[in-house]
């Protein structure tokens, strides 16, 4: 897979996640937050497991205990991120949630520099700033008052940043993307089921009423999109991945406006343009520099 194909896979994942905000928000009319996550990640685990098994059969090297431990840790951070996001959607809008979740686009390169001593290509910094500004404009350049849901979603962005960074590092040494996907889904399912069983009531009618959202969240938003993320991150950097995945805010705002009648203000279209320019910059500028050096 080329870097362009990897970034397009990440863009598709972002589009699916944008629809996932709508599914997550409307699902809580029927199913509580932990049960929704438990059911959708359980479904995602079942969907990805056969492919992970086939991948494992073809592998030439067995997973070490350290690899398995890292897979579990990624799953724990996915659980923390999704739980914070799901509870946040109880008291914030889809548009606000998509903006605040997108803050990982700044957190990823900052954490890379501070803790991993990695220096991303210089274009990442203006592109990251343009992405966050674009996401902000999508919300009309105002978040009004910060609600508890907004605070939880900011926390979610931090957890997602760690999950993105760990995924990128793991894929550099352990080329088992579907195995990692299945592992993190299974860990999230177990943790969510434990929390839901202890804290939230549920009935079969609740599950039946929320089934469309559970199916979207399980098969598309979780199973397909997170697998695309992991596969894509094998062939691009974590910082570039964060830029492309931040476009989920664009799709979330658009779909929130269409399905939930949340208004996209005129200034929001400027945000769409900034997001597009940021994604174009991280794709074109590094390649242009490579071409210039090879011709020199």
From TrEMBL:
Keywords: Cell membrane, Membrane, Transmembrane, Transmembrane helix. Its main location: membrane. One of its GO terms (cellular component) is plasma membrane. The keyword Ribonucleoprotein does not apply. It is a multi-pass membrane protein. The chain crosses the membrane at residues 33-54, 66-85, 97-116, 123-146, 152-171, 178-199, 214-231, 243-261, 267-285. The keyword rRNA-binding does not apply. This is MFS transporter.
């Amino acid at each position: 897979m080329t870097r362009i194909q990897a970034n397009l896979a990440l863009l598709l994942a972002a589009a699916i996640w944008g629809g996932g905000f709508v599914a997550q928000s409307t699902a809580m009319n029927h199913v509580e937050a932990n049960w929704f996550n438990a059911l959708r990640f359980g479904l995602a685990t079942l969907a990805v497991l056969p492919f992970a098994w086939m991948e494992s059969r073809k592998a030439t090297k067995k997973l070490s205990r350290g690899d398995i431990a890292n897979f579990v840790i990624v799953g724990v951070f996915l659980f923390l991120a999704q739980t914070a996001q799901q509870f946040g959607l109880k008291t914030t809008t889809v548009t606000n949630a998509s903006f605040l979740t997108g803050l990982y686009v700044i957190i990823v390169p900052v954490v890379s520099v501070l803790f991993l001593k990695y220096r991303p290509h210089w274009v990442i910094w203006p592109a990251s700033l343009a992405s966050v500004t674009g996401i902000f404009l999508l919300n009309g350049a105002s978040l009004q008052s910060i609600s508890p849901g907004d605070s939880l979603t900011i926390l979610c962005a931090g957890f997602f940043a760690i999950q993105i960074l760990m995924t990128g590092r793991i894929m550099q040494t352990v080329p088992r993307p579907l195995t990692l996907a299945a592992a993190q889904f299974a860990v999230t399912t177990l943790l969510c089921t434990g929390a839901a069983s202890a804290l939230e009531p549920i009935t079969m009618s609740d599950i039946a009423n929320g089934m469309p959202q559970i199916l979207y969240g399980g098969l598309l938003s979780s199973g397909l999109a997170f697998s695309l993320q992991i596969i894509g991150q094998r062939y691009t950097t974590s910082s570039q991945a964060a830029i492309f995945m931040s476009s989920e805010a664009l799709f979330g705002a658009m779909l929130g406006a269409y399905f939930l009648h949340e208004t996209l203000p005129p200034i929001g279209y400027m945000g769409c343009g900034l997001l597009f320019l940021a994604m174009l910059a991280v794709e074109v500028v590094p390649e242009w520099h490579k071409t210039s050096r090879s011709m020199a």
